[in-house]
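# step 3/5: fold
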Amino acid sequence: MACWSFLFGLLIEWQNIKRIFLGHFKTNWFFIPSILLLIAVIIPSTTWGFWGGAGGEGYGIKPLSWILEPLQITETRIALGVLAGILLVRSLSSHKQ
């Protein structure tokens, strides 16, 4: 599901993808956040649950659980996947909008 949402984000920016393939590309600072979002979306939700305190030893509140627990929700992961796709294309496109 995460890969489909990422591909949908790429599809939204199809005009910029066309410009990139024609040779009009330039990287900017959006590239790093888009890769980090893509990594966050690709990691399985069960792993986020384990890191966020939903399983394993030491039940209770972990310091980063308020950041990691929303990544277990499917709708959040889909929205972040679309955002990662859009940001990745915009980070590689040299077209000013």
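# step 4/5: annotate
Residues 2-92 form one domain.
# step 5/5: archive (pending)
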